[in-house]
# Entry
Amino acid sequence: MSGESVRLTQRDIARLAGVSQATVSLVLNRRDDGSARIPLETRERVLEVIRATGYVADPAAQKLVGRRNHLLGVFTYEPVFPTLQADFYTPFLLGIEGAAERFGYDLLLFTSAPVQDGRRRVFHENNRLRLADGCILLGRTLDRDELARLVVGRYPFVAIGRREDAGGPVPYVGADYATATTALVRQAAALGHRRLAFIGPAAGAESSDDRWAGFRAGVQEAGAEAIHEPGLGDPKKPPR
# Structure
């Protein structure tokens, strides 16, 4: 014996289970619709052979034939481990991991992206994005041009916190910063505060724009005096 392991194929599983290769493929892809109904006994026999042999489908091969491989990609524009921004990503990653486990997905963290101008890039010569069924994009500032390419290419993705149009609607999950900031201003006004300060940039990132809009709306509603202190949020700028 050579000692080298032999990779099992769907054809091997079909032979051991006494079914067709097409049946094995349907079981692996969890197909059970009207056009591809498989008897429960047959399905269980195929699954038993898979469990006994430890067979694992080749994800790259599944993608070549247009099937899902239950891999969920995660791409971050900044490094994840461990940096000063680690606490920023940790809650997101914990939530993604928990959801992936519930739906039977494995996570694929894309880390080979080269750093250009201090940031990673989704598209590069070794891009492996399409190994995953879809991808979650995380970053303090996402790249609009790359979002546009993903939209045009119809690649399934969700941007965390990004809403800006990029040649088409961007699928996103984000916080309602405007409403939350307005609510904080109302609370402060209800406590009798008449001079309220907004600390930090009022423009740039979408979240900053939203917070500033919510602050202004709340101040106007309360009839309070608004003060903007951008320098306290940026050590390079003095307060004004």
Remarks:
- The mean pLDDT is 79.
